[in-house]
Design goal:
The complex is a heterodimer of chains A (about 300) and B (about 200). Chain A has about 300 residues and is α+β, with helices and mostly antiparallel strands. Chain A has two domains: about 55 residues, Electron transport complex subunit B, putative Fe-S cluster (3-methyladenine DNA Glycosylase II, Chain A, domain 3, Orthogonal Bundle); about 200 residues, Alpha-Beta Plaits (2-Layer Sandwich), CATH 3.30.70. Helix content of chain A is about 30%, strand content about 10%. Chain A is elongated, with a radius of gyration of 27 Å. Chain B is mostly helical and about 200 residues long. Chain B has a domain of about 120 residues. Chain B contains nine helices and two strands; from the N terminus they run H-H-H-H-H-H-H-E-E-H-H. Classes of the chains: A alpha+beta (about 300), B mainly alpha (about 200).
């Protein structure tokens, strides 16, 4: 008999609470769109924030509410994007994959102007007289881009330059934003020729500090059959991007980020609207500044 | 029932027998969520709410169910049952009323279910305010107040800890002790200093 009382008491307690919770869960249930979970599951889950949302979950929510477009995700594979677009009942615009390229080839080849012994971080090093390199435009080489890359696509070479693995790079733009020298830009994988220098110094000044910098000799300009590469003269020429939408468009063709760089002088700049990656300029460049990206010569146009 | 007794409960629950630093209850959340002040404060508020409410409910369960049927030995299991149910209910309510808050609490809200501090308060109330199976005068008010004060003590410890750890982020500490090892060292030093309150006598 004695055992019955505790069993009954606890049993009824449990029953009451159970029923109470069941009722509460019915009454207080929140309607969740099943697509939300599905989309969140499909998204890469890197939470990189490149889309502008608060992580992948926030992005999924804004996708559902129609505030964002799936194109904004720079990370997801084309296949998953198509799946998500299907879930949302929308069509996906095809975009050519882009990868980051470093517009500097100096590294250990470029001279140092002093010995830097501070925090091993490019942003911090850049605060000290613009970094320890003699070339004020070049890579400082502390690998902040390596640390910031969410996909492990960037590694430091023995020459002290970051190397982008184009297979791992998802063009999330993080390295572009973090680099204090603004050396990265996103170039579509179909274009594999790029100028690996960002120096706007006069040719002789560049040559004094770096054996591989662009000296603005214009040999590439003459060699190009497609009028795709140009060296703009003058020390003060700059695109007035703030006022002229035409020039903004042009800058985009030159893959210059309008927010980043306004100077275009004394440097060979390729217009990717015209460039066919024929490699003439690579062959003719006396400083070996213009580089054909390895592994990208066979055009994967997808 | 007098002001002095409430004051004693307050000082002993918050300082002398601080739930984390002297009784060593609820340490998991203390170490896990004290990295930044905002989540620490949110967790503390949630714990304070749950300890207070569970003090009320467990008092009624004990007084009107366990004592009359003479089954006080079942207090552990029944209290756990009550607290778990209550936290589940709170979770549902928050999910309904404020989804951002719900996402902010994340895993921590369900964790309160098994937070020993909450259960500890319930048992402590029974031990302190029931003598020989009978509720002392005003024991209900004492219980509720003690629940609140233990929550306050938890908040105090959490805020102290998170404040210290936030500042430690800017310090150059050896890699080996970074984060959790350092948190344990700080916790022990804080616990030692709270030992000093033991000298208080009323």
């Amino acid at each position: 008999m004695d055992i019955l009382i505790p069993i009954l008491t606890l049993g009824s307690l449990g029953l009451i609470f159970g029923i109470g919770l069941a009722v509460a869960s019915k009454k207080l249930s929140v309607e969740v769109d099943p697509r939300l979970e599905a989309i969140h599951g499909l998204l890469p889950g890197a939470n990189c924030g490149a889309c502008g949302g608060a992580g992948c979950f926030g992005f999924a929510e804004s996708l559902l509410s129609g505030k964002a477009s799936i194109d904004a995700c720079r990370v997801a594979e084309e296949k998953t994007k198509e799946q998500i677009a299907k879930l949302l009942g929308k069509k996906l615009e095809k975009k050519i994959k882009r990868t980051a390229v470093l517009r500097c080839n100096g590294g250990s080849k470029a001279k140092d102007k002093f010995i830097y012994q501070g925090i091993k971080d490019c942003v911090d090093a850049n605060l000290v007289l613009g970094g320890q390199k003699e070339c004020s435009f070049g890579c400082v080489g502390f690998g902040t881009c390596v640390a910031v890359c969410p996909f492990g696509a960037i590694k430091m070479s023995e020459e002290g330059l970051p190397i982008v693995d184009k297979n791992k790079c998802r063009a999330c733009n993080k390295c572009v934003l973090v680099c204090p020298k603004k050396l990265f830009s996103l170039v579509s994988v179909t274009h594999n020729v790029y100028v690996a220098c960002s120096s706007h110094d006069l040719g002789k000044d560049t040559k004094a500090v770096c054996p591989v910098g662009c000296i603005a000799c214009k040999l590439c300009e003459k060699a190009c059959k497609f009028d795709a590469i140009h060296v703009i003269d003058g020390s003060t020429v700059s695109l007035d991007l703030a006022r002229d939408p035409e020039q903004v468009k042009r800058a985009e063709g030159l893959t210059i980020n309008p927010e980043q760089s306004r100077r275009v002088d004394n440097l060979a700049i390729i217009d990717y609207n015209k460039c066919t990656s024929c490699g003439e300029c690579v062959a003719v460049c006396p400083m070996k500044t213009i580089i054909s990206r390895p592994g990208l010569v066979n055009k994967t146009g997808s | 029932m007098s002001i002095a007794q409430f004051l004693t409960i307050f000082i002993s629950a918050v300082f002398i027998y601080n739930v984390i630093l002297s009784r060593f209850l609820g340490l998991c959340s203390f170490v896990a969520i004290s990295k930044e002040t905002r989540p620490a404060l949110a967790m503390s508020l949630a714990v304070m709410f749950v300890t207070t409410m569970s003090s009320i409910i467990t008092w009624f369960i004990y007084r009107f169910l366990l004592i009359p049927f003479n089954i006080t030995y079942l207090r552990t299991i029944s209290f756990i049952l009550v607290i778990a149910t209550f936290v589940q209910f709170v979770e549902m309510v928050i999910k309904k009323i404020s989804p951002p808050l719900y996402r902010f609490f994340g895993i921590y809200l369900p964790l309160i279910t098994v937070n020993c501090a909450v259960f500890g308060v319930a048992v402590l109330n029974i031990d302190m305010f029931f003598i020989n199976g009978k509720a002392i005068r005003g024991s209900f008010y004492y219980s509720v107040f003690q629940g609140l004060c233990v929550g306050l003590g938890y908040t105090l410890a959490m805020l102290l800890m998170s404040g210290i750890r936030e500042r430690l982020d800017f310090c150059n500490v050896p890699k080996a002790v970074k984060d959790f090892p350092l948190a344990f060292i700080i916790a022990s030093i804080m616990s030692l200093s709270f030992l000093g309150f033991n000298g208080f006598r009323f």
